[in-house]
Amino acid sequence: MRDVSDAFLEAVAGSNSPVVTCDVWLDGEVIRSGLRPVGGTVEFDMFRDVEARLSSLTLVDEESDGSRLSQTIHALGTQVNVRAGFDIAGTEETVSLGWFDVHDVVRQESWSWFDWSDEAQKTSDVATLEGLDLMGVVARSQFLTPPPQTTGADAWATIADLCAGVVSVLDPGLPARTIPESLVFQWDRLETIKQIAALWGAKPVMTPDNQLTLVTDESGDVIADFGLRINLADWESRSNSENIRNGVTFVGKDGATGLDLIGTATESDGPARWGGPLGFRPLRAASDLMDTQAKVDAAAKTRLETEIRSRAVVQEVSALWHPGIELRDKPRLVLPDRTEDDAMIVGYRLPLTGGSMSVSLGLPVIL
What we know:
Elements: H1 6-13, E1 18-26, E2 29-35, E3 39-45, E4 52-60, E5 78-88, E6 91-112, E7 121-133, H2 135-140, H3 155-163, E8 168-169, H4 189-197, E9 203-206, E10 211-215, E11 222-223, E12 247-253, E13 260-266, E14 282-286, H5 293-309, E15 312-319, E16 330-331, E17 333-334, E18 339-340, E19 344-351, E20 357-364
């Protein structure tokens, strides 16, 4: 969860006055400050490479004074920082929802003619913006030629080098890893960064403060009693076995001989047990870093445990407006007849004019 005060959390569940402000940046300078949106939504989805999306942000631009790009909000290199929170007893507390690279702007100007003037008077100038968080900039910034791959180089330092001049980075503080010989860099900058991030089982994301870092599914915070802030109308329970895997084959490479090493692990009990009602459904994984039999055996066991933990269905709920939550947070859901302790926020849509929000919760499938 974002860093907020107790008063902020109390405002979520109590009477409150939502506050949203937008600063528009161009080439490192603020060109519009403190604009209050009159429409728009920020959408978050942890299953996308670019997790945050700015949809139909509508701003009244009272500073435009012409049609030249230097006089208007436009889509050529413009970025928007969106902040949201509450007015708490006359003091505004807001948190950054992210920085967005604007890729589309529609500008609507209106004039009126009045009896007291021979000239038309501008009555409104409204800009509607669409944008993606700056991982979209990384995705579009492909290489002219694939970068040289250096076996044994520090993996995080390599990611930082690949991001130089594109986005700033924040060291995630993960254990040191080195680039294996088997990793071949691609033309696509983001795909190359994702390959390196996979050495930790991690994913590259943009922080709310506009830095690229790495996260895992365990990165989120635990939120107590989130169910108290959900407007429950229906609770739909589902089960789906389509993507369940009940075994893992992990392939490594012997460090001395170069021969393949194979480790296996299978689920031993319950309806998903190996050879049970769901049959035999192995998942295959590989890494040349696993260079002994003990390592591939342990990797197979760990991957199976991860696979079992990741079994989930997605439940959509309506929740009270809460800009403090983040993807991968783990809310404790208080339902009328029970609690759910293992949910994860996998997506949400926050309207920038207040009101209820939509939250997608990943609920574990317990077999």
